[in-house]
């Protein structure tokens, strides 16, 4: 069920009415769990059986890990749990990718047809997210955390619908600590904050992200027929689209949770304003960055070994993170690209420190910070090309046209010569949308207290009406739904 649809808003209204009609905290927890199953069933009922199977296995193994005193037994049970979870993920998400890659490789040596056939499998919604959550739970129990008190608590952790499909990737203790005695009534302040986040999320998704998609989709469906002007607009458009699309989902997820007195972790912190690529990953999809650091990079050795070992760990970690996003070589290249950027950032650390040491004026330091932010933004935006492209052919064609600066310059001159400033206005609008976040938040915080309640209601109502108008007859699915 898409968050940005009238169907979900009706579903949320019904669940909220049931939630607030009952004062029993434990009964409310049951209501939310049942609602989570209904939420997932609206997409595919049979896959509920898969979720029940995987959560049952995870719960059983976690109990055995916690009760066992033998290190070898604990390691064996943990390994089994990780293999089961990754096996299910690999079967549904990567089996056809492996088949295609194998067939392509065999094609260089044999000419008698494909060796492996496609499996007719539907990708379970949210499988990448709840798989990572299940693995983190098992690892944390192995490391000494208390396991779930019962299957009901663990099942709630996995199935909780606001974060089930696209995160944030929550640790078990982050959720369980809020549900020890059921779900209490949220404060009015928390409810209002939740409604504010939901409305902002809808604005980000429906008005900004989906509008930007109108610049992107036609170009990527016909790279050869797109002019250089539209190629650049599509580049800036997808940079804007994916940011506001995923941030919109996260805002709605956090807002819905607050209505039920549950707080999900922050997943975005104005990542396009990051001063370097390392800082970008500390701000973008924060819950995923924490996961790959704590359960992948550090266990592989992190930066504790030699420079070569650290470089290999970094490249492998980010390549796996890229593959987690999608079963395609373009995602793998995107992950490797970010691993290379992080590696390069570490390599040039002495040069960065030397430059910063020479900056003895406030203006120089500000200019350096601005230049660093601009370079980081451009590098991240360039990486989105592989993320958006369905294959290398599309990505190569897009990059080829993007780099024809002289041709773009001629097109702009031709349009400006007849009074057409659409390209310039659109590019400036997209850049402002991407980079103005911190300043907009500060401005809103300053004037928020002076706005009367009736005006806040009017603003919220206007925002919802605009979302309804922009949504039209069909709402686009969130980008991260496919992962």
Number of strands: 0
Low-confidence stretches: none
SSE series: HHHHHHHHHHHHHHHHHHHHH
Q: What average pLDDT do the residues reach?
A: 90
Structural class: mainly alpha
Beta percentage is: under 5%
Helix content: over 70%
Task: Write up this protein.
The protein has 483 residues and is mostly helical. The chain folds into two domains: 6-182, no CATH class; 190-482, no CATH class. The chain contains 21 helices and no strands. It has helices spanning 6-21, 25-41, 47-67, 71-106, 127-142, 151-159, 161-164, 172-176, 188-220, 228-259, 277-283, 286-297, 307-325, 329-347, 349-358, 362-388, 392-402, 405-417, 422-435, 437-448, 453-471. Helix 1 runs antiparallel to helix 2. It starts with 5 loop residues before the first helix and ends in a 12-residue tail after the last helix.
List keywords for this structure.
mainly alpha; 2 domains; 483 residues
Quick structural gist:
The chain has helices at residues 6-21, 25-41, 47-67, 71-106, 127-142, 151-159, 161-164, 172-176, 188-220, 228-259, 277-283, 286-297, 307-325, 329-347, 349-358, 362-388, 392-402, 405-417, 422-435, 437-448, 453-471.
